[in-house]
Each structure stands twice: as C-alpha cells, then as structure tokens.
Write a structure and sequence with these properties.
This protein is mostly helical. The protein is about 85% helix and about 0% strand. The chain starts with a helix and ends with a helix.
C-alpha cells in the first residue's frame, strides 16, 4: 500500500531537483556564451 503523502513529497523533491538542474544548465550556457567568441 502506497502512502499518497510520500508520493507527493517524492514528486515535489524531484520537481525541485529538476528545476535546479534546468537553472544550472541555463546559468552554464550563459557563462559559456559570455566567455565565448
């Protein structure tokens, strides 16, 4: 039996991690673009 609260918490955690990854990749791209030619 699955606890819906645990599922929601895990989903929220994954979402936060994904958002962090996207932000990091955007920052990286901006840095590379600024440093590039």
């Amino acid at each position: 039996m699955r606890n819906p609260l645990v599922a929601v918490a895990a989903k929220g955690k994954a979402g936060t991690h994904l958002t962090g990854l996207i932000k990091a990749s955007h920052l990286l791209r901006e840095l590379v673009g600024a440093a590039g030619p």
